[in-house]
Amino acid sequence: MPLTQTLVVNAQPREKMYRLVDGSGLYLEVTPQGGKWWRIRYSIGGRDQRLSLGTFPVVSLKHARRRCLEIRAQLASGVNPSELRKEAKRKLVHKEETFEAIAREWHEHLARRWTDSHGDRILSRLERYVFRWIGTLQIAQVTAVDILECLRRLEHQNTYETARRVLQICGQVLRYAILTGRAQTDVTRHLFRALVPRRVRHHASIRSPREVGALLRAIDGYDGRLLTKFALRLAPLVFVRPGELRHATWGEFDFAQREWRIPAGRMKARQPHVVPLSR
């Protein structure tokens, strides 16, 4: 049965990767970390091959189906879409040293260290907010004014935090170009001062022992769903994020050593984390 937008949005991660099939070789691959990858499966010369079409929601169901039809058309005309993509990448590397070419090279170089969703988010921001304006400029000729104009467009949309993130990304691309001998200066160094100041808004917090006691009593008196009740009582003993607690497995606990070892894949910093267990 073909996929629907609701089914794709509500697909939740499981302990192991699984697939949701749409048709014509297109399927959605859901990873244990929550990534949702569009892939297409096809056969050439009797050999199965797979091609990534990007991740949801950056690539919508409608767009993934359109790309699937394009690839099927290429196959029908005798073209291997995988080889076509490799050739496009080779041409990109040999282009003049434009901002877009080097930014994509930087992204590909670091993508293996990032989660799928983080890598896709960075590339999406570059494509939407930077490449269309300065992507064709030679990286050595990009000025602070060029980048500031990209950021001003975001600020005019009241997306101030996105502007700051885009500036950080541009700075990393330029520093990569410097390290690889294709630029001399990071022109973003002082641009943070030109952005609209960030409004600092602290999250609500409990600071006094009296308030902590009131919270613990409220948790103890909670009479809702049983699993929620257990999670609320356990949270003050381990101090982890809700997602790390919800997805815990018995195999992560060593009661002899009184340790809970959370694997790197579930941690925000992608580093293993050891939680000492209360007696």
Could you characterize the architecture of this molecule?
By secondary structure, the chain is an alpha+beta fold. α4 (99-110) runs antiparallel to α5 (116-134). The chain has ten helices and seven strands. Strands 1-2-3-4 form a four-stranded antiparallel beta sheet. Strands 5-6-7 form a three-stranded antiparallel beta sheet, with no helix packed on it. The model has no long low-confidence stretch (mean pLDDT 88). The protein has helices spanning 5-10, 61-76, 81-93, 99-110, 116-134, 144-156, 160-179, 209-220, 226-238, 242-246, and strands spanning 18-23, 26-30, 36-44, 47-55, 253-254, 259-262, 273-276. It is globular, with a radius of gyration of 24 Å. The chain has three domains: 5-80, 2-Layer Sandwich (Double Stranded RNA Binding Domain), CATH 3.30.160.390; 95-194, DNA polymerase, domain 1, CATH 1.10.150.130; 209-276, no CATH class.
